[in-house]
Amino acid sequence: MRPLPPVEDLGEGVWSVPVPIPGNPLGYTLVYVLESPRGPVLVDAGWHHEDSWQALTAGLESAGTAVADVRGVVLTHFHPDHSGLAGRVREASGAWIAMHGADAELVRHFARIGADEQRERLIGRTAGAGASAAELEELARTAPPFAVPAPPDRTLADGELVDLPQRKLRAVWTPGHTPGHICLHLEDADRLFTGDHVLPRITPHIGLYAFDDGDDPLGEYLASLSRIAETPDETRILPAHEHRFSGAAERAAEIAAHHEHKLAELAGLLADGDATLWELSARLPWKRGWEAMAVAQRRMAAAETAAHVRTLERRGLAVCADGADGALRWRSADPAGP
Length: 338
Ligand SMILES: [Zn+2]
Ligand SMILES: [Zn+2]
Prior knowledge:
The longest helix has 29 residues, at 101-129. Helix 6 (217-229) packs antiparallel against helix 7 (248-270) and helix 8 crosses helix 9. This protein folds into two domains: 8-104 and 145-255, Metallo-beta-lactamase, Chain A (4-Layer Sandwich), CATH 3.60.15; 264-332, Orthogonal Bundle (Arc Repressor Mutant, subunit A). By secondary structure, the protein is of the alpha/beta class. The strands form three sheets. The chain has a seven-stranded mixed beta sheet with strand order 1-2-3-4-5-6-7. A five-stranded mixed beta sheet has the order 8-9-10-11-12, with no helix packed on it. Helix content is 38%, strand content 17%. The mean pLDDT is 93. Residues 77, 79, 177, 196 line the site of one zinc ion.
């Protein structure tokens, strides 16, 4: 587990409050506290756990404020390490919760279908990816319960200003990691809060979204990276995990190159013949190694492969053929391939 960094005063009315994610190798979410004359606004809220709540409330005290004074919580995206405590902050303060409309729609969708249906769909998708019966059984046994994020009070559109009195905090829509991911630009202090969109060391998970509606999340993500690549080098980048940095363009280019490399690798595998997402994923290199992964990790890896296959499909390099056993099979669309 990473050690928890201290609460930091970053100047110009911006504080960083690390909120732990117990039991998760990511370690913590950086919640940013933006001061305003009418109460602070939080960028993200952290994981829903008592230890996380203690760290958040103590951090707010260190920043000279209190959870009861929070004016609003703006979420970069709906994931639980960002949205988990938002509902509890709202209860304690009457704060509004805001997120992009596309993520708000997903939150409504999760609430509508409920945890059991959500689980069924997860297992159905994993079967369609080509997991074995034993793996599906393990997934059904071990998949954690779904926590539906607190519904937002407000939605934000691209370019919209967040309600932060006497300051300028603008939403920059960067879909990819989730359909409604936003970065937030604090224009009066030239800082860009990048959530999970651009992190200094790791690349965020880009998988097919919770329901496959034919979208191309990796294609969207690469377009969103080009958007962030236009950020001037001197703008401070404040991600939700790891550490602050400058030079958004360089980091965006590195991440884009990583995905292009993976796309090329996958195109090579597809040229070897029909394969399921599971078979393709087993042949790709992963940091942990496919064999060592638990089924939940394999599912995440396969979701990532699925996003890359979708982008290849959009580029005219891959096609899907229905498999006899119910799992979809993919092949190269290159006329030179088999
Ligand atoms: Zn995330
Ligand atoms: Zn995150």
